[in-house]
From TrEMBL:
PANTHER family: ANAEROBIC MAGNESIUM-PROTOPORPHYRIN IX MONOMETHYL ESTER CYCLASE-RELATED, BLR2995 PROTEIN. This is B12-binding domain-containing radical SAM protein. It comes from Geitlerinema calcuttense NRMC-F 0142. Its cofactor is [4Fe-4S] cluster. SMART domains: Elp3. Keywords: Iron, Iron-sulfur, Metal-binding, S-adenosyl-L-methionine. InterPro entries: Aldolase_TIM, BchE-like, Cobalamin-bd, DUF4070, Elp3/MiaA/NifB-like_rSAM, HpnP-like, Methyltransferase_Class_B, rSAM.
Amino acid sequence: MRNVRAFMPPQGLLIVAAYLPQQWDIRFIDENVRSATKADYQWADIVIVSGMHIQRPQINEINELAHQAGKITIVGGPSVSGCPEYYPDFDIVHIGELGDATDAMIEYIDCHTERPSQQVRFETQERLPLTEFPTPAYHKLALDRYFLANIQFSSGCPYRCEFCDIPELYGQNPRMKTPQQVLQELDAMLEAGNPGAVYFVDDNFVGNRRAVAELLPHLIDWQKSNGYPLQFACEATLNLAQSPKLLEMMREAYFCTVFCGIETPEPQALKAISKDQNLSLPILDAVKTLNKYGMEVVSGIIIGLDTDTPETADNILEFIRLSNIPMLTINLLYALPRTPLWRRLETEGRLILDESRESNVDFLMPYEEVVKMWQRCITEAYDPDFLYQRFAYQCEHTYPNRIKVPNSPARVSKKNIQKGLTMLGKILLRVGVFSNYRQTFWQMAKPALKKGKIEQVIHVGLVAHHLIKFTQECARGEESASFYSQKLRRS
Ligand code: SF4
């Protein structure tokens, strides 16, 4: 893990880099891996930036640095598309997905070398069909700097959860790439350096079940003919558990992790946030079904919903215990622009635009109490003993249900073995020797190592270590209670 600097490559920027005219000389920088230097700014004619809301201060800072170097600046991507007003100082804004606005913008850049006197805005009316998307510019990237690689098959989601901006930004009718495009992208990834694991970043991988059913046999064939070089993960709605045929194919394609937005175990809360799709079967049964197909579930949980009561934290912790889900992203509710939630809270006068708060929502429960509830859920969920108990369940009830993948040259290459041994060495040292929960770690690691389950020790040791560290940072007030909170990022 010596080289790993970031979780996943910036998929959107890689596509833009591939879409720009071939004769343009492009320098691709992911600031999660390394910051752009003065020399980079001086070298460029134009600085194109993209990012999510959480990166807003950094995006604006890049704009300032580029302007200091006298360069034209452009911002595109998810954050500016949702909130163009966040970026008043950029020279050019690109709103929406790749499409007619991108072509118009390229033409504009070709004809202008000076910064415009006022902001120029390009807004996509006609999106480029996903079937015409280029293969992301993986060759511009050091893939070994990332924990895992990512790929996109579809965009959009047919559901309408109250807090989510995906349907309004990307549509309710999922659009898809062809299976051949997906395979080409996987080939390009392998060529750039086998990342080991690939995450489908689709808003909802099973948003169009028929299309996924068509894709999966191609993925299975690709895995078989390449010696199963990759583990797959995806985001999907929990009702995937009602599609045994898809699940069987996902198992065969070696999907090992699925992120489900469970959000809350409280049925009345799910109804209130229009997440009825999670009510189509009992949540715990759905999680067990996914486990039966070898998939570890990662769950999103939201605290601060209007339906929350002082008992909510207990209910969430009990749900975590019963579901045995090891990893959960527990966040405070945050209202994103272009969502039904934003509009409702605006009408009710319950939006608080104060960046010193963890959330812009005026909760029905007292703010301090909601933040405390979040802290308690995180701290208890990632108590080392409790976390390792849930991983022990996964070792016994989930991982053995995966297919046995071959020891192919793609999997047991010298590079992979070296990478695995380096990771194992670091975990044994950092967790097995120096951590204050080393006893708990060895209870899992000793028998697993005796059985040769090295991958398991690496996976559990690494993920648990990060979660426990994250919790310690939360306890010290060094982490935000919401992905979207600007509080810490600014200070
Ligand atoms: S299912 Fe997921 S992607 Fe779809 S609207 Fe709900 S939260 Fe958004």
